[in-house]
Amino acid sequence: MTQKAYPEFITQLPQVDIPLPGVRGWISQAPNQQVVFFDIDPIGEVPPHSHGDQWGIVVEGEMELTIDGTTRRLGPGDSYFIPAGATHGAKFLSHFRAIDVFADADRYKAKA
Q1: pTM of the complete model
Q2: Domains in the chain, ordered, with CATH?
């Protein structure tokens, strides 16, 4: 049975402050990195951008992830690595959940 939401102990974490409608996330903060539990509506494309290393795993849904011009379609159980400085963007094709680990401890701020 697939769970369609994160458990309460995750959704009680600080929410990520992100200006994209339809994107929610909860931050687990460590001194040198961040883990974000994302919950994303089928919002279409997130524009290309770059930052430090990012590793993630798809929990639910599908996305097309483009890293430095190469596009892959990812679904549940697929993982991805985005090297520091790589230009990347995504297209969310369905309701989507992923767990992402960012090497930048300050990649996202928590909502006030």
Answers
A1: 0.94
A2: 30-102 (2.60.120.10)
